[in-house]
Amino acid sequence: MVPRETSLPNASASGGNSSGGHAEPDVQGGSGALPARTRRIAHAVAAVVVVAGVLGYLQVQAYGIIGVDGYYHIRWSRLLWEGFLRGEIPEFTWLPLTILDPPRYVDHHFLFHVLQIPFTWFDDLILGAKASALVYGVAAILACYALILRYRAPWPLVWLVALLASSAHFLQRMTNPRAMSVTIVTLVVAIVLLESKRYVWVGLLGVPLVWMYSLFPLLLVLAVAWTFGDWWQSRRFDWRPIAFATAGLVAGLIVNPYFPENLVLLAEHAQMKVSGEELVAVGAEWYPLTSWAIVQYAGVALAAQVGGWLLIRPEDREASARTIALLLFSTFLGLLAFKARRFFEYWPPFAVIFLASAIGPWINRARATEWPAAWKAAAYGATAAVTLSVVGVLFLTVHQATQIDAPIDDPTVYAGVSRWLAVNTPESSLVFNADWDDFPMIFFYDTHNAYVSGLDPTYLLYANRDAAIDYDRICAGEIQAPGETIVSRFGARYVVSAKDAEHEMFLRRARSDRTMRAVFEDDNAVVFEIAP
Fold it and tell me: What is the mean pLDDT of residues 182-195?
């Protein structure tokens, strides 16, 4: 990036855990200098305050839980805790027509739900979910920042801002009470273990990662990337990273509270996402952003990825195993992100980490060179300009992040109808929810009843292909009189739907169907009862 004077130290004596080559006036000593320990503490506090401030700001901008799936996760964590108090893992009975029916249900976020349990002790579960998202989101970003500090990148707080500004979608995903935040922490720990050649620990890390999130194969991808990078540097093939990572993931699949059903769900998940077959519409997170949207919402991440590609020096043996591994891993994540926007929860931070690693040899070479005074001034001027630009982009990124889930910010949309259903229907009544994506919000308020579809439309598709297609047609308003089909196909006597533009056609069909009677409605939603 920028030439440095040779009189400045490359990093602190502590190994770069805090200052990491950060050019502050007091690092040269003198009567006004702060002790190294004080500087490290101040740096750590500043980093926590900045990250918590940004994510906290995003949380207070949203009235409800950010990301609709968070309603399911926090409610299920609470039910899990109540089951633990009884000495059992509770049975999941709320989606009986899908592959998540009681005999086949697998909680592939089990460990994350356990980690969320302390946040279910809040009287207000929405507040608990937001606190969970804040704590684990801050932990994820700080873990990535700690990795950059480990690489002794100069101007560390600029890199912290770059992480935060890397992508609006990444920032927004870090405000969701979901497992990806903790997964990022796990992957960062895995990188440190790989660099330290503690391959047995990498394998052991695979067990909790399997219990945490269904994207646990990323650990194996990381191990393969490290193995290739290590081979590139040493010209010796070391099979241990791949072997131990594989062994740990297999152990996590077998030593599992949901074994062997978890293997069946894993195969079905793989088939759903790899086959490309799309008989029903899936969630927006599984669709790609346009090229221009990627530039708009992830410009810093894209610049970091391209910058890393341009700056990498494979012939330079210094730390090349690490840099080659990060090249492969971040590129892989980038390809996934271009395929589906949900992978923006992973690609942007690792693109920035890759750039921080790739730029290291250039910085070291610049530090070892004596530059003319005019060049030094120009370099520091350019650094200031880049810093101000990144800070400016951060403000834009934060604003963009507040807009991504704005339409589903109100947690009360289904509160009235869900509470009515809980009081006025027989226990475990099957309810036809006119939008699979709203299941988490209904489930949050009403665990008294069961529902036709939720969490992912392919769960119903893989349980009953014809039923899933009919469900999609009914919700889209394509069936003139839906009541009879709802009863005959799904066995549901109650129907719940939001009152918004998205459900306008369905509501028109339902209100004109003489077998369907609105038994409760408020400003947000309506409940229909279908005559026998």
Answer: 96
pLDDT confidence of 1, banded at 50, 70, 90? very low
How far apart (Å, rounded) are the C-alpha atoms in residues 341 and 337?
Answer: 5
Q: Using CA atoms, how far apart are residues 320 and 63, in angstroms rounded to an integer?
A: 46
What is the C-alpha separation between 448 and 22, in angstroms, rounded? 57
Helix (H) or strand (E) run with residue 431 in it: strand 430-433
- pLDDT bucket at 85, cuts 50 / 70 / 90: very high
Phi, psi angles (nearest 5°) of residue 361: -60, -35
User: What are the angstrom distances between the C-alpha of 376 and each of 22, 27, 52, 203?
Assistant: 16, 19, 35, 47
Q: Is the dihedral of CA 211, 217, 220, 221 positive or negative?
A: negative
Distance of alpha carbon 369 from alpha carbon 6, whole angstroms: 7
Q: SS3 string of 335-396?
A: HHHHHCHHHHHCHHHHHHHHHHHHCHHHHHHHHCCCCCHHHHHHHHHHHHHHHHHHHHHHHH
Q: How confident is the model at residue 293 (pLDDT cuts 50, 70, 90)?
A: confident
Dihedral sign for Cα atoms in the order 234, 239, 244, 246: positive
- Find the helix or strand (DSSP H, E) in which 118 lies: none
C-alpha of 131 from chain center: 16
Residue whose C-alpha is closest to residue 479's, from 436, 446, 512, 526: 512
The number of CA neighbours under 13 Å toward the Cβ of 399 is 7
End-to-end, the C-alpha distance of the chain in Å comes to 73
518, containing H or E segment: strand 516-521
Residue whose C-alpha is closest to residue 150's, from 50, 38, 5, 11: 11
d(CA 414, CA 185): 34
Query: Which residue(s) pair with 399 in the sheet?
Result: none
pTM value surpassing 0.90:
no
Q: What is the DSSP letter of 101?
A: S
Cα(312)–Cα(256) distance, integer angstroms: 41
Burial-class residue 479 by CB neighbours within 10 Å (0-12, 13-18, 19+).
middle
Q: How many CA atoms lie within 13 A of 345 on its CB side?
A: 25
Spatial separation of the C-alpha atoms in residues 30 and 43, rounded to whole Å = 20
